[in-house]
Amino acid sequence: MKCIINRRAQFSASHRYWLPELSDAENMARFGACTRFPGHGHNYVLYVSMVGELDEYGMVLNLSDVKHVIKREVTSQLDFSYLNQVWEEFQHTLPTTENIARIIWQRLAPHLPLVRIQLFEHPDLWADYYGNSMEAYLTISTHFSAAHRLARPDLSYEENCEIYGKCARPNGHGHNYHLEVTIKGNIDPRTGMIADLVAFQKAVDDYVVEPFDHTFLNKDIPYFAEVVPTAENIAVYIRDLLQAPIREIGAQLHKVKLIESPNNSCEVYCVEPQIPEMVAHAGEPALAQV
After folding, report:
1. Of 122, 159, 214, 248, which residue is the catalytic one?
2. Residues 6 or more apart from 278 whose CB is under 8 A from it?
3. Active site residue 266
């Protein structure tokens, strides 16, 4: 039986986005405040996912051994470092979140049976890398507050209450929605980026956060005049809104996850995943997780 195991690690490091072949103005236009000298820092959180057969002791790998490998090959070298200079790879391609994840994979792959590297630059920005050449995934999270009512206009109040319960009450109710948007693409061999992060954030803000925030979805968003604004329908609509803007910044929208409350969330993909075959990402074989 194959299982995926995950090991968490962390390191603190600084970096700077700066290309010497560009002028000061060009660097500022491309990277904004991240060009400031001598750089800025993050508390990075790293998740290393590995796959293997369960052994006679009920383990895929000895986690103590895994811990020492990650420390030796990655965290002891990166912790309290200036990333642009600590590894040679970052002198050719900038240490963006997605590129750091890719290089960590390359450093660990000879020692561990990797299936994914996930790196959080901070809680609202993280990258996933699965060992597929220059392809990586980048996620930003944000939020908006909105009210809605779950009721089909062709049904009576009693019928809607049977289906949607308290959510069918005529004056609606509200949520603080948490939204995660994931894009995928190839890492640029010079900038280290899948897409311009500022443009990515702006697309999400312009097409979703600003129009949706502090609204009554049924009344203020024309789409939901006829479509019941369940979390699932909201996520699908956000996916459809963002596909073209994400293509315009040179990436592909991969997934939208909408968290309606701590107990309820949903996620939709641009290419439907194979369920239950998809565990690590679309196309991966079926694997149990522990």
Report:
1. 214
2. 284
3. no
